[in-house]
Amino acid sequence: MTDNTVCSTEELLKKSSEDVTVIINGREYPAKKGEVMLGVAIREGIEIPHLCYEASLSPYGACRLCMVEKRCRDRSEMVTSCTLRAEDGLEVVTDSPEILRHRRMILELYLAEAPKSEVIKSLAARYGVTKTRFFKKTDKDDPLGNKCILCGLCVRVCNEIIGAGVISFVNRGPYTVVSTPFSGENSDCLGCKACVSVCPTHAIVTGDSGDERIMKSWGETKVKMRECPVCGNYYLPDLLAEKVYAKINPPLSKNIQEMCPKCRSRNIAIKEISASSNRR
Ligand code: SF4
Ligand code: FES
């Protein structure tokens, strides 16, 4: 069902500074026009389960868990709240019987898709789902430990924010996985672990060993770590450091660049103290 009274996304974003009032579960809340409704709900402490939403990335609507019922006059439709934009008078219901039925079904599917994920198990249990009627996908060699729900967050953060494009969806249909090309090592990987920090199911495995960071899930890709010349700790992937420092203007001095954050702060503090005692 399409509601023609809803503005296009472009129109909404143009007026995004405008204050509007939206209605969630029968109560009015303030919002900015064009803001995503899931963001409004999170801000107001209203529970809508979600797995593929990340405020810093463009809305994607992959996990289908954040569905709400959008009501307009005597009509209603189920929509993903992470792609639904606020407008004045917009009314949604987050916990109607239909929504709860849909949520349970999706969680059952995820129990089959990611049977080893404790995050999925505990989220499903909160909605009373402890078993799945679907075929459980388990592969003892899965580099993502049978925990991936294919939400795409890792792929998007690697492309949209880091700009490295190291991983992508490969294969099709039930064989789809997230991986590096040919599941091998990828020299473009910066070892930044942005993918790790956004993964909702903690599926991505990495390990630091001496001067190497090993992205185990991404074809065992090895990334060289930078050693702090002061304390000797390996603290940052070399490629990442180069990329970040190249953007700092005016550039940091070479010895400051090479220090780990702790030694750098200590060094700056010592300089500040000696400068202030010289002034006295
Ligand atoms: S590895 Fe994690 S972030 Fe990437 S698609 Fe799978 S569940 Fe999503
Ligand atoms: S958070 Fe909306 S579809 Fe995943």
Question: What key phrases describe this protein's structure?
Answer:
iron, binds iron/sulfur cluster, binds FE2/S2 (inorganic) cluster, alpha+beta, 31% helix, NADH dehydrogenase (ubiquinone) activity, iron-sulfur, four-stranded antiparallel sheet
How would you explain this protein's 3D organization?
It is globular, with a radius of gyration of 23 Å. It is built from nine helices and eleven strands. The protein is an alpha+beta fold and 280 residues long. The strands form three sheets. It has a five-stranded mixed β-sheet with strand order 2-1-5-3-4, with helices on both faces. Strands 8-9-10-11 form a four-stranded antiparallel β-sheet. The chain has helices at residues 9-14, 37-43, 97-113, 118-126, 153-162, 194-198, 238-247, 254-258, 261-279; strands at residues 19-24, 27-32, 67-72, 75-80, 91-93, 168-170, 177-179, 207-209, 212-215, 221-227, 234-237. The structure holds iron/sulfur cluster (SF4) and FE2/S2 (inorganic) cluster. Iron/sulfur cluster binds next to helix 5.
